Every structure is written in structure tokens, then in C-alpha cells.
Automatic annotation (TrEMBL):
Origin: domain of life: Bacteria
Keyword Oxidoreductase: yes
GO molecular function: oxidoreductase activity
Residues covered by the Luciferase-like domain: 7-320
Pfam families: Bac_luciferase
Protein name, per record: LLM class F420-dependent oxidoreductase
Keywords: Oxidoreductase
Source taxonomy: Bacteria, Bacillati, Actinomycetota, Actinomycetes, Mycobacteriales
E.C. code: 1.-.-.-
């Protein structure tokens, strides 16, 4: 089992890089740099590439609407170069609130755009003279669009790898099936091992049937909160605001992916109440409604023996990477948690 974590995207690059170097020595395998509506992920990834030597570096996630497919490919190739082949291209659609509310770009056709973007990226990395006439992207622009002066080009530089691993963040059945078909990795959110096959299994199997053999087995990146100890039960409360935000506030009624997921996990009544309160502006009350058991289900919080059992459950459900969120106040405590987790995973 590999271990990863995401850095704080609202913090400073210098402080994050110093901590990541310590985490690398503690046994961390991969670090994710989020990109929401903060500093861009690319700047931090380039900075971390210079400060680390073994660690994989992943965008977590690079939003597919905010860059052209070719710029995404160029950026990934550049990050793979400065990291000596350690980059993982994490992609996702994000959601309408960020894409339309912050970027001013229509949030449309996420599945079709994701497929086409990946196909274009892989053509760029193979240094093919780029021609692509898809439903959503046309390169070069067809006659009658633009000036008519665009000609097929290929990437000037030679990438370190012509197949940079692609990781898709996906929840809906069609998105999950697409990840299993075309990506090297899949990143769900709030992964519940005992319910994973019931919720995601059919989609994963449908995608796997179309999967090219050269992609290899699908890596599955779960993201549990992490706290190890005999008296860590109160830390369950630290996870609840995030669950309340996503289940209650990420979208309107009937258009919230995370509410749907919680419902499929068997927490439908609770999800409805969380959403009702959150959308009414009662965020604290919504947080209080989040069940302790839901937090336990999707986290690694408890004594070492219990956490080891939960790691086995995640592995049994197909997880290959634990992209943990350590519940610790200081860098030193986070490093200690990763060292403990490394021992339990080995």
C-alpha cells in the first residue's frame, strides 16, 4: 500500500516544501497539490520537484475546463521533466460553483471533454503532429473557424515519458467507468470500503472491459482522514465540517454529487437533513448532524490495531494508495503519523 497526502493549498510554498521533504524521509510515496481557487498547482509542483528526490508529485486536481488540452499536456510534460519523471497528472471536472463562479467558463459535457483531453494529451506526449477533430475540441481549427492559418504542430521538446500517468477524480457511474477505461488511476472522494463495490463496482467493471492492456491495473486512491492513538475519538469532529460542506453545500438539491454518494452509502436521511440545514445557512447545525459512524466509515481514526484493520479493508476493496489527511497540529506530528502509518501498511 502506498501512502500519499495533499498539501494545504492556502499555505505557503516554502513551508510546505520543507514539510514535504521531511514526509518523504518518513516514507511518504506521493504528494498531491490541490488547485481550487487558490494559487495554481503548477507553481507549487515545480517548487516541490526541486526540493524532493523520490516522491511522486501529483496535481490533485487540475481542472479540465481551465486550460486547453494542449496546454495541459505541455504543463504535464514540463512538470515531468523538472521532476525527472515523477509527475502524475490528476484531472477532474471540479464543479459548477468553481468553474462557472470563479472561472466564468460553462460547465458542460465533463465526460466527453475528459476523454478527448486525455486523447489529445497522449498524442502531444508521443510528439505526433497534432490533428484532432473531436466533438468538443478541434485541432487545428477547421476551415471557416478562425483565420484558417493554423497548421498541425508537434511538441518541440522530447518529453521524459510519452505516457505520463493520468489520474481521474470521478464519482458518477459514467465518470468512474471512464476512469477505469482510460486512466492509470482513479480518485474517489469519501471512499467507504464496505460499500465501494455496491456503489462503484458495476461502473469499474464496465470500464475495465474496454481498458487497453498497456495501461496496466487501475490504481485506486482513497483519501481518509488519519489519526492513530488510544484517545483520538474526539478528532472525528474535525472531519465533520468537510463532510457537511460537501454533502450539504456543494450544489443545489438534486444537483449535489456528494449528497448522492452519502445516500448510496446508506445515509440518505442524514444527508437530506445536512443539506436542508446547510442550504438554510445553518452550517454549524449541519455539521452536528453528520453521523459519527459515517466519519469512521471513511476515515482511519482510532487505535493502531483498529487502523491496521481498516487499512486491510481498504486494500480488500481495491485501494492501492491511501492519500491521507493527517489530523495533526504541527509538521512534526504529521511526520510522526506518516511514520506510524508506514509501519502499519508494511
Amino acid at each position: 500500500m502506498r501512502i500519499g497526502l495533499s498539501i494545504n493549498y492556502s499555505g505557503g510554498f516554502t513551508e510546505a516544501a520543507a514539510e514535504v521533504a521531511d514526509l518523504e524521509r518518513a516514507g511518504l510515496d506521493i504528494v498531491f497539490v490541490p488547485e481550487a481557487y487558490s494559487f495554481d498547482a503548477v507553481s507549487a509542483l515545480g517548487y516541490l520537484a526541486a526540493k524532493t528526490s523520490r516522491l511522486q508529485l501529483a496535481s490533485g486536481i487540475m481542472q479540465l475546463y481551465t486550460r486547453t488540452p494542449t496546454l495541459t499536456a505541455m504543463t504535464a510534460a514540463g512538470l515531468d521533466f523538472v521532476s525527472d519523471g515523477r509527475f502524475v497528472l490528476g484531472l477532474g471536472a471540479s464543479g459548477p460553483q468553481v468553474i462557472e463562479g470563479f472561472h466564468g467558463v460553462p460547465y458542460d459535457a465533463p465526460i466527453g471533454r475528459t476523454r478527448e483531453l486525455i486523447e489529445i494529451c497522449r498524442k502531444v506526449w508521443r510528439r505526433e503532429r497534432l490533428t484532432y477533430q473531436g466533438k468538443y475540441y478541434q485541432i487545428p481549427l477547421p476551415e471557416g473557424a478562425g483565420t484558417g492559418l493554423g497548421k498541425p504542430l508537434k511538441l518541440i521538446n522530447h518529453p521524459v515519458r510519452e505516457r505520463i500517468p493520468v489520474l481521474l477524480a470521478a464519482l458518477g457511474p459514467k465518470n468512474v467507468a471512464l476512469a477505469a477505461e482510460v486512466a492509470e488511476g482513479w480518485q474517489p472522494i469519501f471512499f467507504l470500503p464496505e460499500r465501494a463495490d455496491a456503489v462503484f463496482g458495476d461502473a469499474l467493471r464496465a470500464g475495465a472491459q474496454k481498458r487497453a492492456p498497456e495501461l496496466g491495473p487501475l490504481d485506486v486512491y482513497a483519501g481518509p482522514a488519519l489519526a492513530i492513538g488510544e484517545n483520538v475519538e474526539p478528532l472525528l469532529d474535525f472531519v465533520k465540517p468537510m463532510l457537511a460542506l460537501y454533502i450539504g453545500g456543494m450544489g443545489a438539491k438534486g444537483k449535489n454529487f456528494y449528497h448522492t454518494l452519502a445516500t448510496k452509502y446508506g445515509y440518505g436521511a442524514e444527508a437530506d437533513r445536512i443539506q436542508e440545514l446547510y442550504l438554510a445557512g445553518k452550517k454549524d447545525e449541519a455539521t452536528q448532524v453528520v453521523p459519527d459512524q459515517l466519519v469512521r466509515d471513511v476515515s482511519l481514526i482510532g487505535p493502531a490495531g483498529y487502523v491496521k484493520e481498516r487499512i486491510a479493508a481498504f486494500a480488500e476493496a481495491g485501494v492501492t494508495v491511501l492519500n491521507v489527511a493527517p489530523l495533526a497540529a504541527t509538521p512534526a506530528e504529521r511526520v510522526a503519523l506518516i511514520e506510524q502509518l508506514r509501519t502499519l501498511c508494511d
